[in-house]
Design a protein that fits this description.
The complex is a heterodimer of chains A (376) and B (361). Chain A is an alpha/beta fold. Chain A folds into two domains: 40 residues, no CATH class; 305 residues, TIM Barrel (Alpha-Beta Barrel). The longest helix of chain A has 18 residues. Chain A has a seven-stranded parallel sheet. In chain A, strands 9-1-10 form a three-stranded parallel sheet, covered by helices on one side. Helices cover 43% and strands 13% of the residues of chain A. Chain A is built from 16 helices and ten strands. Chain B is α/β, with parallel strands linked by helices. Chain B has a single domain, classed as Aldolase class I (TIM Barrel, Alpha-Beta Barrel). Chain B is built from 15 helices and ten strands. In chain B, strands 5-6-7-8 form a four-stranded parallel sheet. A three-stranded parallel sheet of chain B has the order 9-1-10. The longest helix of chain B has 18 residues. The C terminus of chain B is likely disordered. Classes of the chains: A alpha/beta (376), B alpha/beta (361). Chains A and B meet through helix 4, helix 12, helix 14 and helix 16 of A and helix 3, helix 11, helix 12 and helix 14 of B.
């Protein structure tokens, strides 16, 4: 283990030994990591863990995000993207629009990320049709669509159970649920930032149901708004408890709160070191979720690069067109090319691994050729 | 203990690095180990958890330049529509705005204007000093060399005359990479490495303090970055006049150099290595202008102890596609959130009275 004395001097000796041995950290130990004055010591421990899990491998995916609507009945306080039904600026994408956007990407996406607002009128048959049409147009793509919050919304609209909704969507091609809608599980914070959204129990239950059906899922945490450090640790603890039971989480995605264009006023907005510390502690606490994403859209590219040394092993991907984070003030680029991602990862001294949505490596050079009409 | 860890421990305790050791660290040391050793050196040199910065304004007196360096997106060749030379009134206005914001200094640099005589610069300095109480940190060594050329004087004479007109210190710009092979490739019309260092040493001998910069990530090799650090270290051994070292990464947009933008960990590694090699330079500045506030904050744990300046006006990096902006209050907040106490300083690193900083926070 590197520099034992360094961690001892910071009172992190016991934690460092547990990390080296791969043992589970307690919530109290999580608090100690958040309280440690030296953020780089916490980062070094997280990097140790990341390296034990994945070596120098750094994952990325050729993907495409589609938001099928911004009309949403939830009106969460942190959201800059939502519109009410009938409000100016509201939109619904047709299935043809969605397919056209996905197939116009410079490279055929291996992961299709489709999420939207909880629209009051879009019915399950529409989503079945959407998945079927997308899968037909892109047979190699893994469909990672609909947060647990949307699944719960579909179930309510249809009068079905969430399991029945998941079964129906799975039969239409759904392979994976994205990790959105988790925000922060603590009920008091949820009541203030997203009172109409699924609560923690419902969110976790739906992910457990998806896992039981053989659907992999991701999990997010939105941090840096009204939550406390203990709320963050509680969130991580609930995720790892769920993972112990059902085992289907593939990747954890910490999302720093973007402060613009929304109704939450933050006294002390997150700074860079807060983001990195939370990423690092997440890696250390979530001992049973294999991957951790440095989502460059929310972090900025330069911060995502550093995050790969603070516990993250995945850069997400090409994205191409991102709306939700940018409308809330994210200043990152809209898309990165595959060549940019590969060169960046090599420049970091890490090894790029192109993956599919479920983190299976994709080999071969045949996909390096652009397809019809796409712009790099 | 590994060989690398042993070197890092020794350097953290004050042992001077050899070129071979520095190369080994550059090639093989882990990012976190390198950063931690650099931070230990920083804490040995500056035990107080204080991070300093200067409140100043970049005033580019002209963008007219005959150098045509390939990395520059700012200059305009003589005769171009967008050429400008600031008037005394314009400069005065900018200085007044700087003073109103609590500024203590202006950083003045410009292009190598083919027609302005040395007296133009002397008049400008005299105008500033006659009207304002402000520190003038101005004219990088390539400009001094250019002034010598147009005036037929030696660089020593040019420095003497500028100093007599009010020049207080010299910024470390135009160093790029202090290896002539690289300079020939990216800035063939600028002074060679030896002359850059000679101007600085001459300035030091005349009692002017200066900084030193390094711009990396264009056409230099890894080894040439090290040679730059060692050239600066040797120079400092001779004169001791450098107050700070400022490494920053080349920004490729709108320039004539095609390069992969360096990643933030590559920047942090170079920053840490700078701190470790330059055992004779007290201060290392982080570059929020090129790296952004998040990485600048982290850089305070990779050898940096100074946040540079508020850069009330910055034009050159912005022309190359990067535009981060920070107010003094934002810098204070970032420094505090990183676990340090922010303090406003002067060019020579004397601190301003604490109350002033605290009031504005």
């Amino acid at each position: 283990m590197p520099e034992v004395q360094r961690f001892e001097a910071l009172g992190l000796g016991a934690i460092a030994r547990k990390v080296a041995a791969g043992e589970r950290l307690s919530l109290t130990e999580g608090q100690q990591l958040f309280a440690c004055p030296d953020v780089t010591a916490v980062g070094a421990l997280a990097h140790l863990r990341r390296t034990a899990l994945h070596g120098a491998k750094t994952f990325y995916v050729v993907n495409r995000h589609i938001n099928y609507t911004n009309v949403c009945v939830n009106a969460c306080a942190f959201c800059a993207y939502q519109r009410e039904k009938g409000q100016e600026g509201g939109f619904e994408l047709s299935i043809q629009d969605a397919v056209d956007r996905l197939t116009s990407a410079p490279l055929p996406p291996r992961e299709v990320h489709i999420v939207g607002g909880c629209h009051p009128d879009l019915r399950l048959a529409f989503f079945v049709d959407l998945l079927t049409s997308v899968q037909k147009a892109l047979p190699e793509a893994t469909l990672k669509c609909f947060t647990a919050v949307e699944i719960a919304h579909f179930a309510r609209l249809e009068g079905l159970s969430t399991i029945e909704v998941l079964q129906t969507l799975k039969a239409a091609g759904l392979a994976m649920l994205p990790g959105g809608g988790a925000e922060i599980f603590a009920p008091e914070v949820r009541r203030r930032i997203c009172p109409r959204k699924s609560d923690a129990e419902e969110w976790l239950r739906i992910h457990g149901e998806a896992h039981a059906l053989g659907l992999a899922t991701n999990a997010t945490m939105l941090f840096g708004h009204l939550e406390s450090i203990d709320d963050r640790l509680d969130h991580l603890d609930r995720l790892r408890t769920q993972q112990d039971k059902t085992g289907g989480f593939t990747c954890f995605i910490p999302l720093p709160f973007q402060t613009e264009n929304n109704a939450i006023k933050i006294e002390r907005p997150l700074t860079g070191v807060d983001e990195l510390r939370t990423i690092a502690v997440s890696r250390l606490m979530l001992d049973n979720i294999p991957h951790l994403k440095a989502y460059w859209v929310m972090l900025t590219v330069k911060q995502a690069q550093v995050a790969l040394f603070f516990g993250a092993d995945d850069l997400d991907g090409t994205v191409v067109e991102e709306k939700i984070g940018h409308m809330a003030g994210a200043t990152s680029e809209q898309g990165l090319t595959k060549a940019q991602l590969e060169a960046m990862i090599r420049g970091l001294g890490l090894v790029p691994v192109e993956r599919d949505a479920r983190f299976n490596p994709i080999g071969g050079d045949e996909r390096r050729q652009p397809i019809q009409g796409g712009q790099a | 203990m590994s060989r690398i860890q042993q070197i890092l421990d020794e350097v953290a305790e004050g042992r001077r690095l050899t070129l071979d050791q520095a190369r080994l660290l550059q090639q093989e040391a882990d990012l976190h180990d390198l950063g931690h050793a650099a931070h230990r050196v920083r804490l040995r040199k500056h035990p107080e958890p204080v991070v300093t910065y200067v409140v100043d304004r970049n005033i580019n007196y002209s963008n007219v330049c005959v150098c045509a360096c390939r990395f520059c997106a700012y200059f305009r060749p003589p005769g171009h529509d967008e050429c400008f030379v600031l008037t005394h009134a314009e400069i005065g206005q900018k200085i007044e705005e700087t003073l109103a914001l609590g500024g203590t200094q202006i950083l003045m640099q410009g292009g190598h204007h083919p027609d302005l005589p040395l007296t133009w610069y002397e008049d400008m300095l005299a105008f500033i000093k006659a009207n304002y109480n402000i520190h003038v940190h101005a004219f990088s060594p390539p400009e001094i060399v250019h002034f010598a050329k147009i005036s037929g004087l030696t660089t020593a004479q040019v420095i003497q005359r500028l100093k007599a007109s009010g020049l207080d210190s010299i910024p470390g710009g135009g160093a790029e990479i202090l290896v002539d092979r690289v300079r020939q490739a990216v800035s063939p019309n600028k002074c060679p490495a030896g002359q850059w260092l000679a101007v600085m040493e001459e300035a030091h001998s005349q009692g002017l303090r200066t900084t030193a910069t390094m711009m990396f990530g264009h056409e230099e090799t890894e080894e040439e970055r090290l040679l730059h650090l060692f050239a600066v270290r040797d120079s400092q051994d001779r004169t001791g006049g450098f107050t700070a070292f400022i490494p920053w990464t080349f920004q490729p947009d709108n320039t004539n150099i095609v390069a992969r933008p360096l990643t933030s960990p590559e920047y942090l590694r170079m920053l840490a290595l700078s701190r470790l090699v330059l055992d004779n330079i007290d201060n290392v500045q982080v570059s929020w202008v090129t790296m952004g506030p998040k990485i600048a904050q982290l850089a305070l744990y990779f050898g940096g102890n100074d946040f540079g300046s508020t850069m009330i006006e910055e034009n050159v990096v912005r022309a190359a596609g990067v535009s981060f902006r920070l107010s003094q209050g934002e810098i204070d907040g970032l420094v505090r959130a990183a676990g340090f106490e922010p303090r406003q300083r002067r060019m020579d690193y004397r601190l301003l009275p604490q109350t002033k900083t605290a009031e504005q926070a």
